[in-house]
Design brief:
It is a single chain. The chain has seven helices and ten strands. It is an alpha+beta fold and 220 residues long. It folds into two domains: 99 residues, ATP-grasp fold, B domain (D-amino Acid Aminotransferase, Chain A, domain 1, 2-Layer Sandwich); 98 residues, Glycinamide Ribonucleotide Synthetase, Chain A, domain 4 (Alpha-Beta Complex). Strands 1, 4, 6, 9 and 10 form a five-stranded antiparallel β-sheet that branches. Strands 5-8-7 form a three-stranded antiparallel β-sheet, with no helix packed on it. The longest helix is centred in the last third of the chain and has 20 residues. The relative contact order is 0.17.
């Protein structure tokens, strides 16, 4: 599994109208939840999952937490001090956040039996040292985030959920994807990952699909 973010605020298959509609939905939901019929003292993070359709933007899910892995796409390019951001949320004076105009791709390595796709009952040692050495090559353009792991006698072992995420950061999606995959392929252990996150062919397919949906909507 994984996720990606383009240089700009929207994804390649989105329109500016999609972005504005998603923001409006988020503001309306937050306004209700923090209003007189909700919790006026509401603070913190809300995660929205949206889908673009022929009839506009629809909500898939809302969570009072960060989205995983999506949060890694945005926090890695956040220019503001994150502690200050949290303090401003508490004080209710958080303004506009600032992000570097870079693309990010997150690729997750997960256990072989994650999601019930396979059966595996053997040992689950994980070695991320080879991936971490890529910092010498990429510097801050690669980030490695251990997840569902435990450390026993100095060795890492995968648990049952998402094990390690690798974030590639670059000026465009293709380079960010290449960096992310370079890192994830160097993680040693009984894990699997997807190779199609931010795949150009898939992005182009999504762009064409949305064009057809919007054209159909205009005709009807």
């Amino acid at each position: 599994m994984g996720s990606y973010k383009d240089r700009e605020e929207t994804l390649p298959f989105m329109s500016a109208a999609d972005w504005r509609e998603a923001l409006e939905i988020g503001e309306r939901v937050h306004g209700f939840l923090s209003g007189p019929y909700g919790n006026p003292g509401l603070r913190g993070v809300m995660y929205f999952g949206f889908i673009s359709t022929a009839d506009g933007v629809k909500v898939l899910e809302i969570n009072s937490r960060w989205g995983d892995p999506e949060v890694m796409n945005v926090l890695t390019v956040l220019e503001d001090d994150f502690v200050e951001v949290c303090l401003k949320m508490i004080d209710r004076n958080l303004g506009r956040l600032h992000f570097r105009r870079e693309a990010t791709v997150v690729t997750y390595a997960v256990p072989l039996d994650y999601g019930g796709y396979a059966r595996y009952s053997g040992p689950k040692p994980v070695d991320i040292s080879d991936a971490e050495r890529l910092r010498e090559k990429y510097g801050d353009r690669i980030r490695i985030y251990p997840g569902s792991l435990e450390v026993v006698d100095g060795r890492m072992f995968a648990l049952s959920s998402r094990t390690v995420a690798v974030v590639g950061i670059a000026d465009d999606l293709e380079e960010a994807r290449r960096i992310s995959l370079d890192g994830i392929r160097r993680i040693d252990g009984p894990l699997r990952h997807r190779e199609d996150i931010a795949l150009p062919e898939h992005i182009e397919r999504s762009i064409m699909h949305m064009r057809r949906l919007r054209a159909k909507s205009q005709v009807s």
